[in-house]
């Protein structure tokens, strides 16, 4: 097993690293000082060289997103940090904000230089009171130390960072819904290209806005510290998946937790990092529930943006929330639970997601209570098909994926529920 | 025409509404389907579902081919086309009146953009290339190409939200430098040059079928008791695009039905499809945001704030734009099915804005008033006063028989009896006390024709210039901009007024300016320094809105300020014919056409007078006439013996009601033409029942000076008669028979009576 | 009686100052108002917020009802939020909820008659690696077993609620710096 270089989490376990003093002792805010000496374009170039891709789920190349921001300062530019981590199975941002709030703040500041932004809002989900306190405390410390405020470090530039607390809506993790929520509206998605201009041009308050994940901007700190060229050396074969990424590995593994893992590490090895599977692997969700269930084979593929084999039919790496299930777990209730979750979190804006999920929940309830019909399997499939590609935002898409993949992989289990009203999984190994 | 369409669609709609399987009518000629049986066989396949999941790859279409084709072959159950009517370009269906109106509105919008010199893009829709201005929405390009795109949430006057997902089409477009084809909603997608749109392909049909199945899953399908039934977009779309049966066997969503939001609007949340048209209307058009979405997801519902009422003066519009029966009217509730209701295009009489309306009636009664499109005035909106405030025409208390006073009591008589009394009295007073012992009070709420006839009656038959209509003195100050132009001013200053209630359509334009064009609306309480400052700062970018009841001195002052700084001044008059009355000559110093005599005589007055004497075949009185104050004071002192009042209620509305009451009490003989026993009418010696604005033809002149025709929708109630007919009768009885068979005859004469030389409109 | 005391308006003003438009302060303002009103966002609280931010009350109600963490009803002194999403579910969240329901004599979503506890099912708390997770008043309890839950309930019984902390609870505390 290869040694996993710790880039983001280099100082994760240093006692007191969440305080400014300790953070500074460990090279804190050096990247920001460096960024202040660079032009915005030079930073974006560095990011381009590093091959950094969004760590929130979509994996969009960060430099392309950033390059679309207008290169003038006629109006205020905004950096918005998506800390609305709500994808089931994903716990990395919470860990990062709790443990390394200054890394996030420094990452924000570096990004703000690159984006010519003087204001940054960190949108933290309402449930994350602890991370919120942690980040707000770090902001306060950084402000007192002169990293935030007017004319920061005599650079002539102003940097302001605010936290913005959500109030319980998974949908707000979607970039455009997050912007709605930030503007004090219902957390409903807004139109995006090709329906509307890019948010980088016309985002919140019709001004240039960039939404980035917590981990994405935090990764900027090591990239600037070591240089993009050096960063790009980290990683396995794929030229498009470079560097490390945080994975929260949960479920039936010996040592669940948040791990920083080099992109492209063989999946088998990833499981071993988490101590190996507890019992016999039945299925897993590679990157947050929206990605869908994957079959237990193959496992010998590189775990990165491109590596996940097509035949798993999952959507990919996603947010890095790997959930492992062994044979003791029945899948139909899991799929039901996820459908109920998406149904609960559907914003209600578009018809397929609002009505389709409502319908699916009712069908699942029938199936798991023994009132299912064999035609329900086809019906579920067709409802999914009627949602797929027709919903307004990715929530609908994400909601049907666990259903479709489970229908495909575990059809017999569904049939068992339909025929008998229950399903007895393999008993847990002693 | 419109009625016929509605009826046809309703017939078929009802079949589906009941939840029955609307098998295509036999012999309906569905392409590809030899007969109804083949269709029924296909239904079986769909119901059972033959997709084999295990073998189907997730990425592929997980639906059997038969199902994809189902829509193409059997889905659109076309409303039976009338003989000789050709089907649309895609051979689908006749569009509903609402859709036609929306398409026309979109076309107007595109036309305006094109006229403004917008870049033109070519888009191919179902193989038909069309040119549309940049910024056009794809759905609007589809309209232009004649393609059939169903929709619920799209509305040409609201911002697009892309919520219902019904308007999907297969669109080939360029994004990030690459061309791709995808299913896209067309209502929120702007056209690109060279875009290729396909509306009827199997993918699209399947998707639309699915969307409708979703929408109907929780929809109560209580169409037989829904007021929207018969003109319901959801019903219509279901017939054309919907699945024939539903696979939804679960319990539907339930809410208490028929929740009143106000005196006018009822909400049925079960029927709502969350298209957000009403909430967008309240936010963007009415500007008050009184309706909003509450809760989330499948529990989303529309509602007003807790414990409040839907008090917006524009609430009725939400009923009209609701694509289902979620918002319905309390006044129209169960008053008739749309196909039983006859509709007549007319003009609203509630205020001077001159909204174009459709007066809808059934069995001789007004059942509802809907908005009608006029881009220059009300676009397609109405206010609640216009929509709900005119049911007085159905009132049982309407006067239905002429009355004359005998021994202190008003007793019913025949028209002949009443008019004989009247004609005798006119002769008597004229002979004994001279023509100036008689005075006439016209009205700002009857037609131009009636005011004209009244003026001719007073001046030519009676021979007096004692005629007026103003319930308070105000200058005739024409608006310096049109209603529509108000929305283009960056600075709008209004003084006093509850604009949304007093001048509703002007208010909507102001809101449009504020919401869409970021205009600055300054609301002053009086003509104070803040007004002057705002006008001075904005100069010609400002428009000043004043109520007519402002102190005339202030109006004059405002006029001077506006003239100095280059701002526009709009003095807003109150009633549906506030301009028609003076134009018709129902003002002491004005001859028809607002030819002024007196202190500042209009150029060409003498010629106009000669012309009029020729038309009227009479010599006109030369004594200056009394204005309203003079008439009432004269009557109060007993100098005016006879008052003839047509359609107004000075005892209640005159600025000095005491004087009016005294005048009415002291005048020897009072004639009143009115619909109701008003306070003024109680003083009448002869009381003549007149008809409402929906019972006659005529012309209203709105606050801009725009002449618009009202049209008779129903027969006059009881034995009432239009004011013009009463007057025309009187003409004959006074020895000058006039050949008037309709209001149009009078209008022709009015047009002839106008001076032949151009004169300034007003002073 | 308006609860927009100078103390509260000072907080609201500070929040408003963070954004280019007033409306953007709506979510944080609702948090403050919820605490001012003792942990529940009453219609009066919404109306006052609307008035202060110059928004239509219906719009504020729309926002307040969209987000689940604005409480429409008064909760117990301690709101026990048990994560029910899949990672926690796989490690016995349902059993934990069932246990609490039995133990407290209420269903999830209800409050004990004495007003001490509210039991809530919540979606992923982001503590998937230490499932099942429970959150009470902003504090996480991870790897919660039924015995641990027992201890926790006992501890909480005596403890004051987070929202009772002066001056207006933890949210306001963190909002002002």
Q: What features would you describe in this structure?
A:
The complex is a heterotrimer of chains A (430), B (763) and C (177). With 430 residues, chain A is of the alpha/beta class. Chain A contains 16 helices and 8 strands. Chain A has helices spanning 20-25, 30-37, 40-50, 62-67, 92-99, 101-115, 129-144, 175-182, 214-226, 228-231, 267-273, 331-345, 351-368, 375-387, 394-409, 411-420, and strands at residues 78-83, 119-124, 160-165, 209-213, 244-251, 257-262, 281-285, 321-326. Chain A has a 4-stranded parallel β-sheet with strand order 3-2-1-4, with helices on both faces. Chain A has a 4-stranded mixed β-sheet with strand order 6-5-8-7, with helices on one face. By secondary structure, chain B is of the alpha/beta class. The longest helix of chain B has 19 residues, at 97-115. Residues 1-90 and 759-763 of chain B have low confidence and may be disordered. A 4-stranded mixed β-sheet of chain C has the order 2-1-3-4, covered by helices on one side. Chain C has helices at residues 6-16, 26-36, 43-53, 57-66, 86-89, 93-104, 146-158, 169-175, and strands at 78-83, 117-122, 134-136, 139-141. Helix content of chain C is 45%, strand content 10%. Chains in contact: A-B, A-C, B-C. The interface between A and C is large, with 60 and 47 residues.
> How big is the Rg of chain C?
18 Å
What share of the residues of chain A lie within helices?
A: 40-55%
Shape verdict of chain A: globular
Order of helices and strands of chain C: HHHHEHHEEEHH
Helix content of chain C: 40-55%
Order of helices and strands of chain A: HHHHEHHEHEHEHHEEHEEHHHHH
Strand order of the biggest β-sheet of chain C: 2-1-3-4
Structural class based on helices, strands and sheet pairing of chain C:
alpha+beta
Regarding quaternary structure, what we see is: heterotrimer
Number of helices of chain A: 16
The count of β-strands of chain C is: 4
- How many individual helices of chain C? 8
Q: What Rg of chain A is obtained from the alpha carbons, in whole angstroms? A: 22 Å
